[in-house]
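Input structure tokens:
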């Protein structure tokens, strides 16, 4: 038997006058997934969520649930529920009354309401909170109650639009852990919207990165981080150095790239095929770059010491070496960020963990340093 995706979004577009808010978006979301729409403000996340919920109509394309189009189904008949920022529990109602609210609105019988409220509280593992008021609950418990309220109508899908965006960093992190556990417990498909890349990485099974109404990349968090398919995704997900250049040679799994202003480096080939001469960009995470005192990185020292900064490319091997100067540094407690100026003024962000006891300042501003990375440290994208 063929396994169907729970939700299929097929070529969906939405136009506001001349402005194309969604441009032929296609996505498949599987049952039980924690799926996130991630992108900068204004890229179309809420617009897409509203189309899924049925609050708004697409100008083209289709949305299928279990293989059947729901485009013509009014929102109240779609088996899904939307949760907005802050969860909005009614403070003057008990937990049970809060959860019962959508059922009372729908005119459910009293007995039915009672059993469904009990079931929802069991689902979020707070059966003893029925008589409590929201103010007496912790942030995580309030979140569970809001989700219990969303679950009473037994939706197939929960849509969440930036529910944590108003919280401070620490509380948000706690709530993220709660959300992960909750989604695992109840097993319902979550479609989660956020502009916060770290939140998306922490929560999601898969992420769709959006850019100007289009899907830039859909992948698991570690794939997005390690193998971004474009400069935009590399830049948007985590910190990333992006060095532009062109392909000089491709031999087996190794690509020789001539980096603008820096010279040739070896890069392991990605899935994409790069024609010789084509423009490309090397995306390089700060933590993948080694930084050492000038001439301190083994293998580089012998050849490096006699070279001037202007011609700092070492003979090509599995590692790329460059020299530069510490432009500035940022002490962040667990790590220190060193921005290193290479020849031609290119600024490279590197990271050093401050894990050795007593060591926090390895370098000062103006220190001459060497940076090095291995050929599989970076990832090549078209530019
Ligand atoms: N009802 C509307 N009328 C006109 N423009 C809209 C409307 N809704 C959204 N937009 C525009 O569409 C774009 C995407 O909006 P939205 O989906 O809310 O972005 P996001 O949720 O990613 O921040 C924005 O430029 C926004 O101004
Ligand atoms: Mg939005």
């Amino acid at each position: 038997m063929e396994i169907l995706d729970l939700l299929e979004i097929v070529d969906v577009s939405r136009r506001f006058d001349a402005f194309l808010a969604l441009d032929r978006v296609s996505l498949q979301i599987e049952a039980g997934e924690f799926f996130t729409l991630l992108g900068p403000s204004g890229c179309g996340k809420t617009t897409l969520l509203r189309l899924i919920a049925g609050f708004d109509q697409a100008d083209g394309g289709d949305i299928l649930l279990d293989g059947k189009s729901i485009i013509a189904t009014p929102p109240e008949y779609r088996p899904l529920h939307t949760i907005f920022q802050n969860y909005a529990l009614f403070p003057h109602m008990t937990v049970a009354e809060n959860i019962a609210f959508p059922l009372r609105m729908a005119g459910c019988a009293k007995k039915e309401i009672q059993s469904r409220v009990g079931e929802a509280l069991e689902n979020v593992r707070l059966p003893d909170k029925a008589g409590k008021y929201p103010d007496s609950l912790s942030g995580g418990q309030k979140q569970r109650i809001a989700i219990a309220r969303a679950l009473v109508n037994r939706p197939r899908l929960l849509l969440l639009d930036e529910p944590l965006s108003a919280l401070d960093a620490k509380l948000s992190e706690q709530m993220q852990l709660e959300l992960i556990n909750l989604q695992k417990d109840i097993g319902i498909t979550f479609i989660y919207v956020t502009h916060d890349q770290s939140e998306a990485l922490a929560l999601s099974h898969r992420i769709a990165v959006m850019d100007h109404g289009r899907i830039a990349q859909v992948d698991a968090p570690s794939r997005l981080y390690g193998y971004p398919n474009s400069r935009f995704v590399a830049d948007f997900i985590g910190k990333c150095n992006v060095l532009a250049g062109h392909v000089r040679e491709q031999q087996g799994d190794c690509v020789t790239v001539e980096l603008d202003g820096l010279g040739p480096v070896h890069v392991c080939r990605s899935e994409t095929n790069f024609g010789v001469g084509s423009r490309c960009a090397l995306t390089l995470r700060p933590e993948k770059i080694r930084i050492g005192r000038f001439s301190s990185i083994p293998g580089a020292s012998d050849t490096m010491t006699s070279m001037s900064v202007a011609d700092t490319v070492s003979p090509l091997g599995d590692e790329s070496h460059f020299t530069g100067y510490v432009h500035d540094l940022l002490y962040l407690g667990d790590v220190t960020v060193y921005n290193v100026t290479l020849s031609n003024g290119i600024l490279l962000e590197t990271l050093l963990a401050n894990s050795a006891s007593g060591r926090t300042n390895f370098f000062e501003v103006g220190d001459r340093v060497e940076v090095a990375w291995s050929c599989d440290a970076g990832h090549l994208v078209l530019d």
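The radius of gyration is 26 Å. Residues 300-315 have pLDDT under 50 and may be disordered.
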